[in-house]
Design a protein that fits this description.
By secondary structure, the chain is of the alpha+beta class. It has two helices and six strands. It holds the Pfam family DUF167.
């Protein structure tokens, strides 16, 4: 069980540590109790948050409305909710984590 991942009912909650301004957007492993995501978007005018939510929507093959930022709008530490009934092993596979 991963401390940064909670799957309950039709919701997946991810606790993330986001590093904007990277070369490419990718999962970078665990960072304490968070999953670290490197983002190829600058932390300017909400561009990093928009890029993160769009990237997660693509990863989980859901619409952009199914991905919402619950906490951390102006922080590197973010909590994201995804409307999906995936189980933990499926989420880990979609994120490329073993």
């Amino acid at each position: 069980m991963k401390p940064w991942l909670v799957c309950s009912g039709h919701t997946v909650r991810l606790t993330l540590h986001v590093q904007p301004g990277a070369r490419k957007t990718e999962v970078a492993g665990e960072h304490g109790d968070c999953l670290k995501i490197r983002l190829a978007a600058p932390p300017v005018d909400g561009k990093a948050n928009a890029a993160l939510l769009s990237w997660l929507a693509d990863c989980f093959a859901v619409g952009k409305r199914a991905v919402a930022l619950q906490a951390g709008d102006k922080s590197r530490h973010k909590v994201v909710l995804i409307t999906s009934s995936l189980a933990e092993p499926e989420v880990l596979a979609l994120l490329g984590i073993q």
